Amino acid sequence: MVALDRRVRLLGRAMRRAASISSMTPADIEKAQQQGAPPALLARLFGRRRPGVDVENRVVDLSGGRRRLRIYRPSGTPRASRPVVVNFHGGGWTLGSVEGGDWLCSGVSADLDAVVVSVDYRLAPTDRFPAAVEDCYEATRWVAEHAAELGVDTDRLAVMGDSAGGNLAAVVSLLARDRSGPAIASQILIYPATDLTLASPSLTTNAEAPVLSTDEVRAFRGHYLGDDEAVALDPRASPLLADDHTGLPPALVQVAEHDPIRDDGVRYAEALRDAGVPVRMTEYVGMPHGYMSLPGVCRSAPQALHEVVAELRDRLVARHPHRQEAR
C-alpha cells in the first residue's frame, strides 16, 4: 500500500475537525447545504473553472419540482452538434453542489470539446431515496429530448459522476436500459458507491481513511435511505445488486487505494465484465476518496481527469468519425 501524501493527511484531519457527517443533525446538514463552501476554499481545494468554457445555469421542470442544470460548453463559434456528458456531483446524496464540480466539468468540456450538463438533484435528508435517482434520470432524458436546443448529439451521450454521483450514474445507466432510454454510450464512475448493504471488505481495511471514514459512509447512507435496511437491496440504491448487468454502457471505473468504498468500484467493474460489458478499471494508488474533487491537494487529479477525457474521446468521438464536424 502506498502511503498517503502528507497534504492529504493534513486535509483529512482538518476536515474531520471542522465537521463530520457522523455528528451532524438534519438541521446542521440543511444549514451546510444552504451555505456551501467559501469561494476562496472552493478555488484552492476544488480547482478553478477552465478558461475558454462558458457556463449557463438553467432551471427545468421535473416531476419532483424545478431543478437547476449547470451547462458547460466551449466558448467561441458553436458547432452543429457536440457530444454531451451528463454529470452528477458527489457529496453522499446529502451535501455537495454543481458549483463544486466546476473544475471537472469545465475540464471535460474544454478537453473533449463537448457540452457537459451537471444536475442539481434533490438532497437528503429532506428528500430521501429515490428522489435523487428520479431527478438524475429525468434530467438525462430532458437533455436527450432537448438535444437540438442544446446543440448536442444524442448518439454521443454519456453519464458521469463521482462518489454518490458515481452511484447515480450507474443507476441512471440501468434505468435507461430498462425504461425508455435514452441510449447511453459511456458511463464514467469515479470512486462510486455501488453496494449500500455495506458488504465491501475495504469498509474494514480502510475504516479510518482520511476524507471519508466507514462511520461517515454509514451516516451518509442513513440520511439517504432512512431507517429501513431493506431499502439498500433496491438496485436503484445498490446497482451492484441488479439481477442483470448485460447491455449496460461501456464503463470507466476509477477507485482510490485509501477509500472505504474502494471495493464497491472493484466489485462493480467485475460484475460488468462478467456480464460482457467493456470496462476499464484504474486504481489511483496513494489517493483518498474524493481525489478528483480535490485537485488543489491530490496530485493524481489531473491524471485522472486526463483518463476520463481519453475514455470519453474513445467512446464518443473516435467511434463516430462521421460526426466530427470541423470547428
Automatic annotation (TrEMBL):
Pfam families membership: Abhydrolase_3
Keyword field: Hydrolase
Hydrolase found in the keyword field: yes
Keyword set includes Hydrolase: yes
InterPro entries in UniProt: AB_hydrolase_3, AB_hydrolase_fold, GDXG_lipolytic_enzyme
PANTHER family: AB HYDROLASE SUPERFAMILY PROTEIN C4A8.06C (PTHR48081), ALPHA_BETA HYDROLASE FOLD-3 DOMAIN-CONTAINING PROTEIN-RELATED (PTHR48081:SF8)
Domain Alpha/beta hydrolase fold-3 residues, every copy: 85-292
Single Gene Ontology MF annotation: hydrolase activity
Signal peptide as annotated in the record: none
Organism from which the protein derives: Actinomycetospora atypica
Stated name of the protein: Alpha/beta hydrolase
